[in-house]
Design brief:
Blueprint: H1 3-10, E1 13-18, H2 25-32, E2 40-42, E3 68-70, E4 77-81, H3 90-104, E5 115-121, E6 142-147, H4 149-162, H5 167-185, E7 202-206, H6 218-227, H7 231-239, H8 245-251
Parallel strand pairs: 1-4, 1-5, 5-6, 6-7
Antiparallel strand pairs: 2-3
Length: about 260
């Protein structure tokens, strides 16, 4: 199926982005879309929301999970943000759950979710946002993204220094071992939460120093493409990547 026919069927690739405020979601979406600009926001009726009166502390306006977030630099994506979803909040969990289920029964494939990105800041690993579940009847891939991982590296460095390591040696060791330490000590908590994820549908990835100009989300894009079970949908996802020739080559998608 060529790119034009893909767009006629799906129009855009739709992603639900989960995670609390200040979890690094904005930076990731900007990197994915190769822009530093803010997105345009549209309500459920397709009307653009005027952000000129929004204060900086209220990012992207009044939160509504139905709102569509689109970056002009790559309009092939539609994002929905579940800001407000907190561990133990039954109300917010129900909003997200109902929204996922409602989108899952949409007749038009382009209105359904195609993937979920769940951002978890690791700057305070002992208080990780947890408590997400994916309904078994709604099988879309979910990628867990651990953000602010540079802070966790520094925490790991402090841990090694407390064990007698010198500062420079401790940092080098932490840079190598922080991912494994995080997995062993924190990532496994998802199996014990009130609303554990369906682990068969979950992939894990890490990001460090996402605020740096040369940082990218290639690993996230690759994991998302790998997780998609529908070849046609995967081709759409790969087609809308504007600067990732390696991903196009891997899946044999012609630009």
């Amino acid at each position: 199926m060529d790119a034009q026919r893909l767009r006629q069927k799906y129009r855009q690739f739709r992603i639900l982005v989960m995670g609390k405020a200040n979890a690094g979601k904005t930076t990731i979406l900007q990197k994915v879309c190769n822009t530093t600009d803010n997105p345009k926001i549209y309500d459920s009726a397709g009307q653009e929301i005027d952000l000129s009166a929004v204060t900086p502390s209220r990012e992207w306006g009044e939160h509504n999970i139905e709102n569509e977030i689109i970056f002009e630099a790559n309009p092939g994506y539609i994002f929905h943000d579940s800001r407000g979803f907190e561990c133990g909040s039954t109300k917010e969990f129900k909003i997200v759950q109902d929204f996922i289920e409602q989108r899952g029964i949409e007749g038009a494939s382009w209105k359904q979710f195609h993937a979920i990105w769940y951002c978890l800041p690791t700057d305070n690993a002992s208080r990780l946002l947890t408590g997400v579940i994916i309904n078994e009847s709604f099988a879309v891939p979910m990628i867990m993204i651990y953000t602010k991982f540079d802070d966790f590296v520094l925490q790991t460095q402090q841990f090694f220094m407390s064990q007698g390591e010198q500062e420079e040696d401790a940092f080098e060791k932490a840079s190598l071992l922080a991912p494994n330490r995080f997995t062993e000590e924190y990532a496994k908590v998802f199996n014990k939460t009130r609303f554990p994820p369906l682990m068969d549908d979950v992939s894990f990835t890490y990001y460090i120093d996402m605020d740096k100009p040369d940082a990218n989300c290639d690993k996230l894009l690759e994991k998302t493409a790998d997780a998609l079970g529908d070849d046609t949908l995967r081709q759409l996802f790969v087609c809308i990547q504007k600067n990732n020739l390696d991903l196009c080559g891997k899946w044999g998608v012609k630009r």
